[in-house]
Amino acid sequence: MEPSDWELVQKCQAGETGAFQELVSRYHQKIYVVIVGLLGNREDALEVAQEAFFRAYRKIKSFQGGSSFYTWLYRIAVNIAIDSQRRQKRNPLDFRETMDGLFEEQNEVAKDPFSDVHDRELRDKLVAAINDLTPEHKAVIILRTVEGLSYKDIGEILGCSEGTVMSRLHYARKKLQEKLSAFL
Amino acid sequence: MTNCEHIAESLGVWLDGELTLADAEVIRLHLESCAQCDGKRRQLEKLHSSLKGVLGSNLPQLALEPFWRGVQKRIAEKRTWRQEVMEWIHSTLAGPAVAWAVPAAIVIILAALSVDSLRKLATPRNNFAAVESIDAHGRNVALWREDETKTTVIWLYHNQEGENESSGENTETGRSF
Question: How high is the ipTM of this complex?
């Protein structure tokens, strides 16, 4: 039977690096996907994801299990990503280019879900509209859409109430709908 | 707010499955009878599936080994004190810590004001009073006023030497009565 996250955390706190490696293997992909969504750049996302695990490793002794390990880890990662996004203010085209690149790679092995011209246009508009959202609004959309997290978990990750998550999601969706009204 | 406006506000929460069963049932029943709101539901569902398509389903797998090596490298690296401080500042100011900043500032201001008023209470009061000596047609009159208790005392006194008719803040004269 696989050890739970909390059991692995306790082993880490006792100095077992192997247990931390197991936690990394459980969550590195999920963390990476969320950060790519937030930053829109795979190289930056890789850096931020590694930094997030490094900081989690350093702080793991202070983790008391009050929340689940993954919300704690996501919180560290999302905070670094939002901070990095604010500081870097990268070219807005980066996100679109990166996502286009990802689609091209994907097309080689599977059918592009946006292969239809109309849908491809929708995808381009959608990527641009996501890019225009503030980091906080982008974060709720990604955590909800990609990870399917509950409002409670998203609130814990972003350090805000469920009501705030609800209103941010409502606002972000409204903004996206306004920009994509011709396609929806 | 009309019923349709209220439904439109709650559609996203309903689709996310975050409403109570009773509230969800109200929305479901409304959608069955309102084509306009049902159209909004379809729009929102299409947006959701498009978002999933763009954000969720096309990312390449991230190999664990090189990723873990990168994390290990960071763990082994000795960071400068400046990096440590910057990291601490960022982690302290990020996320929920900021939410504490405003109430903390208010508490500090209130505490500062309280300390100031307590200090005023603790300090013994100085009752400033003024003694004036007035020349009133050959008689010597002294006035003592105190603002705190709104007290005024008037003395009429006889000047022993009879010569000193000076007015003003003559303390020597004040002491003689």
Answer: 0.78
